[in-house]
Amino acid sequence: MRRVLLLGGAGLALLAAGIGTGWVLHRPPAMNARAYAQNRLIAVQVHLDEAPAGYVFLAGDSQSELESPAQRPCGTELVNGGVSGSSAAVYADLVATLTFRRRARAAALTIGTNDLMAKNKPLGPDATARFDASAERILRTLMANTDRLVVTAVPPVGRELARWLEPAAVAHYSERLRALCGRLGCVFADPFAELRDGDTGFARPGALRDGLHLARYRPVMDALAPVLCPPRPASAP
Fold first, then answer.
1. Residues near 109 by Cβ (< 8 Å), separated by ≥ 6?
2. Which domain holds residue 169?
3. Is residue 5 part of a domain?
């Protein structure tokens, strides 16, 4: 019961509001995320279909979905394709179902929070291999549909969730994403650097609202914007 109260107090309410982590119900997490995604992806596809040229696509889990689509990180429309509760494996399947009628000017991916569950031994070779394979599928899908892909580090987590999450996996999976970008040609960035309590995998006090989600999301987009949309070189005479 205590587990449900600690994670479910935030998770169940957020899931009911359409932004839950998908971790804490009795059903498997992947089932929760996929059930939520059935309706969520309708909205994402509608926005993609109507997005103007030069839009920015935001991909990933709830850390992406909670970013306000009213923001204009490159002075253009933001299409928020985040799906709360998604692990890398789940999002790899979901993003492959989307149709990008126009290429995005840039895309940003934040994934990994839902891959940190300690019971799944995220530091083990099997879990690491699955994460790598799923993340590569996501990256290849996005890189086929955008001119510039920025992949972020995994955000830090709250110390109150140390019993359920593996904090060392935050850096572990972040480095896996960095390596993938180095191999595939995307850009790696850490817009969460100011929120980290050193290299512990934990967040600084006050950085999170519930042990998982950020207290403030707009500063993260502000930090990402220069990487997403670097100044274009002046045209040669």
1. 59, 60, 64, 138, 139, 142, 149, 150, 151, 152
2. 29-228
3. no
